What does this fold into?
Amino acid sequence: MITIEDARGTELTKAQASEISKQTKPLTVGALELALLAQFPREDAEEWDRTGLLVGDPAALVTSVAVALDVTHDAIEAAYRAGANVLLTHHPAFIEPPAVFSPSYAVASAPGVNVYDAIGKGVALMNFHTALDVSVAATRLLAGMLGVDFERILIPVDESGQKGYGQLCAVRPSDAPFRLQHLAARCTSVFGRLPRVWGSASATVKRIVIANGSAGNVIETAIAVGADCLVCGEVKYHAALDALQAGLCVVELGHDVSELPLCALLAQATIDAGVPSDEVFILDQGSNWSTPDATRI
It folds into this structure.
C-alpha cells in the first residue's frame, strides 16, 4: 500500500523547486499536457508508444499532481487521497487498449481495472514514456548519479545527436583504476538495490554505456564502440551472455530501479509548467520486489 508521508518520507514526497518556478494561474489538464509535450515531444516517442493524456477530461482544472513510475491501483488510490486529480507516470497505463473495463481483476486485466478506477475517482492518467527516455535531461541523469562523464548518445533520434538511446560515458581519471566490482558497489550505493552483475569482478572499466529500462539494441552498439561495461535496467539472459563473450560486462539494475529517478524529472517539468511545487508529489514505488538473501529475517 502506498501511503502519504511528509517531505522526508519514503512513500510520498513533495518535489522541490525554485521560487521563480512557482505560479498560481489556474491550469487545465489539457494545458498541462501541452506544456509537457513541449518538453517531451510526441514525435520523439516510439511509434508503438502511448504519449500524453490517456484517461481524463482535458478541460478539468488541475488540483494537484501525483507523479509515479507506473499506473497501479495503489498509485491511483494514493493520488485520490492526496487530492490529486492527475496521476503523471513514466510508463503508460496501457499500450494495447484493454478489452474490458471493470472493477474486478477476475473480469478484466490490471489496465482495465486501473482505467475504470481512475475514471471513477476523477484521476486523469497522463504519461511520457519513450519521449522522456530520449530527452536530454533523462539521458544525462544516471551518468551524473553514477559519477561518470557523459560523452555522447550512441543511438540518436534527432539530427542534433543530443537525444536518443544509450549514453557513452567515461570513468573519471581520479577513479582509476576502476574495476567492475567498484562499479557494482557504486550502483548498489546509489540505487539502494543489489544489481545483477555479468563479468569478472576484477575487470577494468574505463568506458561505460548507460541505458535505462530495457537494454534492447544498445548492446550491439556498445560492443561496436569498444565499451567495457553496460549499465542497464534489464537485459535478456542470452543477450547478456553473448555480450559477455564479446567482452562487454553488464550491470543489470532492475528495470524499475533504473527509471525511478526519472520521476523527479517529470515532477520538475510539472512545476515548470505552472503547477505549484507544493501541489506536486512523487509516489515511491521502489518496494515492488526484494532480494530475499539480502534481507535479515
